[in-house]
Amino acid sequence: MLRIRLFTPEGSASQSTFPLVVCLHGAGECGSDNVQQLNWLPSVLAETRRQRDFSCYILAPQCPANSDWTRYRKRCSADNQTTIAANDLLMCLIQDVLKFSNVDRRRVYLVGFSMGSY
Question: Whole-model pTM?
Answer without folding.
Answer: 0.85
